[in-house]
Amino acid sequence: MIHKYLIVFFIGAGLLACSSVTGIGFEAEQIAVTGANSSDNVIDSLIRPYKVKMDAKMDSTIAIADQDFTKGRPGGALNNWAADAIYNQVEQSIKDQLPKLCLLNVGGLRNPINKGNVSLGDIFKLMPFDNEVVAVKLPMSTIEEIEAYFKKSGGEPISGAMVKAGKIRFVEDYINPRFFWVITSDYLLGGGDHMDFFTKGIEIQNTGLLMRDLMLKEASEQGRLIWDNEIRISF
Amino acid sequence: MKRRDFVRTTALISGCSLVAPSVLSRDVGRSKSVKSNRLTILHTNDTHSNIDPFPMNHAKYPGKGGVARRYELIQKIRTEEENVLLLDAGDIFQGTPYFNLYGGVLEMKLMSKLGYDAVTMGNHDFDGGMDGFVKAVEYANFPFLCSNYGFSNTPIDGITREHLILEKGNMKVGIFGIGVELNGLVPKVKFGETKYFDPIEIANDQAQQLKEKGCDLIICLSHLGYAYDDDQVSDLVLARRTKNIHLIIGGHTHTFLERPVEEKNMAGETVLINQVGWAGINVGRIDFEFEFKKFEKKDVLFVQ
User: What is the ipTM of this complex?
Assistant: First the structure.
């Protein structure tokens, strides 16, 4: 669709500017990029070697999904799978006996996992960002800030704890701990999505591992992806 | 057959002469001299490493996009028009494994081949870190325009520039880039010492500079985002609170505008804002037709 307009603007006499334009008209359209390109396209030949190498890597099946995994708020099967995957892979590396939870963000899960064969490419689509997993030790006093964040956002992927009637409850029992660990991404730790409570962290443990690589590892270890659609968050 | 269903005139200052609507018609055969008063802007935003078209079973955009197809339609327009500028409003990186595997090198090679004239940086263009950006940009033959990021003491220092002036036909076109606040969008480690300057203040300053340099058309490549519910600076806000900008080519919010939106700037003049979604699904096209002041005898200072 083309739209035609005329705009006129004015270069008044005596201005410093030396533009001598007295009027500008315009027409506009948004051109859909669709349909096939010709077979001798030079761009195709530039892409081809990159694509061949990439496709071979991406098409390999790493696991099977018996159902669709989709994300949602307050929760969804994809929220649970992703948070559990990161929690399972990292939890052991935190040595002290403090409560631990994994907290991710709904926005960071970029694609569902569809029922059927799960390829390397599917995990790339789910987690295209090269985010590193980090663990942050927070004082218990920040729990309320996290609860307030959940309430405002409507829910984020969580593992190792649940949010019941707006209150965070760790899966395991602890007696008056002063601190707890949050396993998350460097993106969120660094201020992403304004999870400002992370600025109160008193210790940070870098894993040096990418979220995506840990999801890949968990997926291959599971073989058949564990589908858990329980809503872990309520207000 | 292309449909033209929207014709109107906007006179911003009474008494101004209007460009005759007839000269806007693309179908009418035109002489060289008219063509050189015409400028075609083609633009993309948020292409996000979408190099191949979406697969045919894609839920929302089956078969849409693809750099090869984009190249062909741009080439076709280049054969039809004398003065074409190809621009991008940022977030070139991130979104497909092409970026994860090759770090943006292929995106830069392709955009160079497509003949981009200028682009600006989006927040995701920091995703490979600043060193990653610098490495990828070695393969770019077009400039990155960023006027409100301070890159001193970072690896990007000297890689970008604030603005660019291009002479096309009879027109002088000034282009500058405005980026979004990185804090909260990009991990600190990825943008390091980069300083963020007020987009409105900087845009006004850039547009003023370009005007003083005699630009006939001033374009802002913006990665601020089209509009927000809260008071975050958007393209709409930018348009209203600046002057001397004629066109804002936006990005970041992946907004599919049906046509350029018209806003009034601080001086009551019209500013166009356009944004074409994301992933290279659409290319925006705006054809400008310029009318130049006719010199009268009393204006002629030197006579041979």
Answer: 0.88
